[in-house]
Structure formats: C-alpha cells, structure tokens
Amino acid sequence: MIIRLFPIIFFSFKLIFHCFSFGVWQGCPLVFPIQEKTEGPSQGFIITNTQGTDDKVTYSGQLLDIQFWNEQIGWTCGYSGVYKTMDGGKTWQKMKNEGGWYHIQLTSPREIWLLEGQHGKAWARLWHSTNDGESWEEILPGKLQGYGALYCKGPVRFVLCNDFASHWSIDGGKNWKEQTFFGSLKMAIPGDVKERMGFTIYILGSKRPAPYLLKSIDSGETWKEILLPPGLPYPYSLFFATSWKGWIGLDQGKIVATEDGGETWKLYQLPTTRAITALWFDQLGRGYAAVQNNNYLQLAESMFKTEDGGKSWKMVLSGAKQINALFGLSYKKVWGAGACPGLPTATDLIVISNQ
Predict the structure, then answer these.
(1) pLDDT tens-digit profile of 150-169?
(2) Which terminus of the chain is more exposed, N or C, with fewer CB under 10 A?
(3) What is the tally of helices (H) and strands (E) in the chain?
(4) Exposure string (b/e) for 316-353, b if CB count within 10 Å is 16 or more?
C-alpha cells in the first residue's frame, strides 16, 4: 500500500515545497484539481464540462472555442472534440472525436462552420454543415495553411491563416478573396452599422512583441493600420462591441480601450499580471476578461468582470479554470470554454452565467 501511494505522497511534498519556495500560497492547489467538484454556482456562474459531473469520468481534453445561436442552441470545440447543446450548456452531445478543432461559428440554428488545424503544421481545413452536424462538406480544400481565426456573421465568412494567405467571402461562401496578414491573431466585425462602402472589420496581429491593428471600412477591400499606444506587450485577444467601441487584451494583465474607432486609446490594468486570453463586452462597457491560468502549480485568478468599460475590475472566477473563449448574448447571458488544469490529467471546462 505504501509503495502504491508513494507517487501521490511525493507529488504532495513537491507541490508544498514549490509553494514555500516561491513564498506564495494563493492559488497553489493542495489536492489534485481533477478531484474538484465541477458543478455549482461560483459567484454567478455554473461550472461544468461536456461530460456532466460524474466523479468517475476520466475524459480529458481542452476546449478552444464556443458559440451560441440563442439561449439554448450552442456548439463548442477543442482538442477533446466537437459538441453541441440544446439546453443552454447543461448537457452536451459529442459530434466529432478528439482532434485539432480550433474555431467554430454558427450562421443558423443548424448551419455550422468548423476550422480544423494541426499544431505546428502549415495545414488547415474548413468544414461546413447545413444539417446540424449530420454531414460535413470541406470548403476551400487544399488552400488553407493556417487556423488563426474563423469569423462568420451575416453573409461574411473570414478565415485568418496567420502568416499565410487568409480567405474571406461576403456572399455566404460562394466566392472567396485572399490576402496575407502577417502574424494575424484575432478579428472583429461589429456589424452594428454599414458604412457607405461596406462594413467595418478589425484585425489584430503582432510584430513581435508589439501588437498592430488593421481596420477596413469597405468590407476588406482596403486596410488602414490604426496607431496604438507605444510600448504595449504581446496581444492575445480582441473584442469590439460596436464599430467604435473596442478592447485589446494584452500580456501582463494590460488592456487598451477605444471609444472612437481607434483614434484614441486608454490603457487599463487588471488586478493581475497574467495574459488576457478572452474578452466579451456589451455596448455599455460591461464585460468579462479571462486570463491565463493553465499552470496547475500556480493556479490563481481565472476571470474578472467590469461595469465601467475596463477602468475597474472584480475577480469572479479562480482556481483550476483556464478559459480560452467567451461568448455572450447579453451581459447576463455569457458562456466560457476551456479546461481544468490538473494531474494526472485535465477535463474540459464549460462556464455558464447564472445571474
């Protein structure tokens, strides 16, 4: 019995030594996070996963994206597979097995766009289903070499391919254009107004380590680089609630915000120095920021909320929760997807607002 328990005892001593050696107790797990109960309200949120709350579940994985069509119909995807829900995220049905499922978008209750990639390889595939995931058709076969971002809204279909040629369509995917945006990471198409020549698009990239932001007001025909404040750290996330009001999440817990389409910016600081992995805001400036929290030896804050556009923040989630993506229908109806870091393995994570 002692021999069988030795690995657990050794890990416990190692973990406690780690906490003492760094002089930090906050966030250090003294038990395996995998043993943590994964459902129940947590300051206005329900914490669960795609497998339910059975303590015997050993399924592992990580979710990378999530989107809902309404308060009931939603999809999520990641290394652990592709799933859909019909009850607001309480239960999930597995639609595809484990793989490199990086981004998912819905353009109707039964129409889904799914971007697949292989980590470290210049290879990607865009999948399209019009029958609720029963069958899939590959779009742009052989043309995609990156999987930086997927954005579908109205008739717009946009695939960002990092340092390779990106592809977009403004007619629902019938015709495609391509252009290269080096180091592109994230994009936003607010869609609240239509300019004289088309709609507004923002693309966030990095000229390591500094971020850069591109803006188009003619549906992607021409682009202008937006001047950002100097000395900003590496960018991780982007969100525009309107064509004028937007936020960029950066390393070191920093965030910059604009209310005039990028003409001027304000720099804010979250109560953390961790990278901001995901953002969501409404038009009044109320929103959430998820931060990097994937080191099981140093678990701490996971997500913050603001009610004043980012000037002040309050922590709402902490512990073994790494949130990679946020999606909201309103300030009180928000979902998050990610993973619960831990040993010997991790479980995927679903966060549901419960306000």
Answers:
(1) 999 888 899 999 999 999 99
(2) N
(3) 1, 30
(4) bbbbbbbbbbbbbeebeebbbbbbbbbeeebbbbbbbb
Q: What angle do CA 221, 195, 203 make, to 5 degrees?
A: 50
Question: Parallel, antiparallel, or unpaired: how do β-strands 266-269 and 254-258 relate?
Answer: antiparallel
Place of tokens 């720099």: 267
Omega within 30 of 0 (cis) for the link into 209: yes
Q: Lowest mean pLDDT: which of 9-23, 101-115, 302-316, 318-332?
A: 9-23
Tell me the torsion sign for CA atoms 316, 320, 322, 326: negative
> What backbone torsions phi and psi does residue 11 show, to the nearest 5 degrees?
-65, -40
pLDDT tens per residue across span 184-225: 789 999 978 766 678 899 999 998 889 999 999 988 889 999
**What's the sign of the alpha-carbon dihedral 311, 316, 317, 318?**
positive
Question: What value, to the nearest 5°, has the Cα angle with vertex 232 and ends 227 and 234?
Answer: 110
User: Which of 16-20, 56-60, 103-107, 332-336 bottoms out in mean pLDDT, i.e. has the lowest?
Assistant: 16-20
Q: Please report, as a single letter, which amino acid is at residue 260.
A: D
Q: How far apart are the first and last CA of the chain?
A: 47
- Computed over every residue of the chain, the mean pLDDT equals 86
What sign for the dihedral angle of Cα 75, 82, 143, 211? positive
**Best CA proximity match to 104, nearest among 94, 119, 114, 96:** 114
For the four alpha carbons of 257, 330, 234 and 205, in that order, the dihedral sign comes to negative
pLDDT-derived band at 270 (thresholds 50, 70, 90) equals: very high
Instruction: State phi, psi for 306 to the nearest 5 degrees.
Output: -135, 155
Distance between CA atoms of 238 and 120, rounded to whole angstroms?
23
The Cα–Cα gap between 68 and 72 comes to 8
Strand partners of residue 65: 77
Per cent of the chain over pLDDT 90 is 70
